[in-house]
Structures are given as structure tokens and as C-alpha cells.
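Might you be able to consider the sequence and fold that I enclose below?
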Amino acid sequence: MTLSIETHTAPDGRVTLALRGEVDYATAPRIRESITEILATDKAKSIHVDVAGVTVLDSTGIGTLVVGYRIARDVGVAVTVTNPSRFITRLFTVVGAQELLEETTDAFAVAPTRAT
């Protein structure tokens, strides 16, 4: 179970956490620690969790992101999940956490078919 987390802080206070790998019960605590460290610096204006490189996301991972979102919101820092796959978008929608997604989409829409 591997997870890498790259953190980048832009001059405007936008912090990006780029996650790569598996986000599950074994690795989710590292995300919580990263968010806690960012909030402790008191410099972040927003946190953007980039999940483009996530290969596995379980309920513990989603729960960790939701808790991080709520804690950050309570101290005035916005948290959004960016670049979700269609599968991750559906997961967030099913569990009622779609407010974390940077751009909400209709995760259950049928893909348009091409006319020939």
C-alpha cells in the first residue's frame, strides 16, 4: 500500500496536495497529518487535494478528506478535491460528499453516444 503526497504552496496561499497511489485505511492518516501541518502554518488560504493519481480510494480515505474539509472550514480555509476520475466522482456523490469536489458534475449521467 503506497501513497505519495507532494505539497506545493503558491504565492497566493493556495496549497495543493497531489496524491498518488492508494488512499485507504493504511495511508489515510498521512493525508490527515499533511492537512494538519498545512493548517498549523496559518498561511494557507485554500487547500486543493489533487486526486488525479489516486488508484484506490476507500471509505476511510473519503472520511479522512471529509474530516479535513470540516476542520479546515472551521478555521476559514477552503478544501476542494480536484481532478477526480469518474469513479471517484461517483464515490463522493454516493456518500453525499460531492461538496468537496471542485467542480460538481452529474456522476450518473449516461455518456453521450456518437451518431454514425
Q: What stands out?
A: The first strand starts at residue 3 and ends at 9. The beta strands are 3-9, 14-23, 46-57, 78-82. The chain has a mean pLDDT of 88.
